[in-house]
């Protein structure tokens, strides 16, 4: 890892934006206890690694993460032109910061989508979102109404592109039949395999849409000490084996395993440590053999291939 590390960039969909394959996930920003100036320094260090895409959501940090990012961008406004900004909406949390919310629920109405996007712009102190995602599928989602909201935000110049998060292939197809979508942000790791087999990544590959992957390290469970259950221990042993063969950190190998899928995933980081960002970017330089990739898949699935 002595050579300069730079995250590659990809166009995430036909006609879509160009993002860094390693994405700076800021959902834990409020817990990092960084001062505004320390946040600026962190953003600059991420840029030095070629990480130019930031992932946010209105609800992150109890509705405070976007505001905290905005404080940093207010100090260093020149950074606004260096990053691509992603946010999400559609979940309403009960919070002191949203006293009008009386029950936690989904809301994908036209009014809420537009209001949420505008709130995110104000909080982050930016003029446009490069991408807005619907955070979770809503049982009451009206695809036509959501498309109207997207059209309004796009025509007003407030949001460039749209996508979804945690949608099934059929839910993605429904909304995409009304408005072009450029990604689906889903959970995938050695501890969570369903997107490999439920059609989620097949659909992305068919449409040439790069998925965004959250929790690629299994929420940290792959590295959280010795008291893991048998399934996690089995994956950890296989990961240690492949990491030794590649002479790479465990986190790097776990992320490289995700990045190797032919749908060309982007991977979100979730750490406030620059060392963790370096390990993630290093994963972009690693290529597992098929035998190594399936060694990890078999350990994760708890079986050999049929």
Characterization of this structure:
The structure is a single chain. This protein is an alpha/beta fold and 306 residues long. The protein has a domain at 9-182: Alpha-Beta Barrel (TIM Barrel). Helix content is 41%, strand content 15%. It is built from 12 helices and 12 strands. Strands 3-4-5-8-9-10-11-12 form an 8-stranded parallel β-barrel, surrounded by 4 helices. It has a two-stranded antiparallel ribbon with strand order 1-2. The protein has a two-stranded antiparallel ribbon with strand order 6-7. Helix 1 links the parallel strand 3 and strand 4 (53-55). Helix 4 runs parallel beside helix 5, helix 9 runs antiparallel to helix 12 (290-301) and helix 10 (250-259) packs across helix 11. The protein is globular and about 50 Å long. The mean pLDDT is 96. Residues 21-293 form the NADP-dependent oxidoreductase domain. InterPro entries: AKR_Detox_Biosynth, NAD(P)_OxRdtase_dom_sf, NADP_OxRdtase_dom. This is Aldo/keto reductase. It comes from Undibacterium rivi.
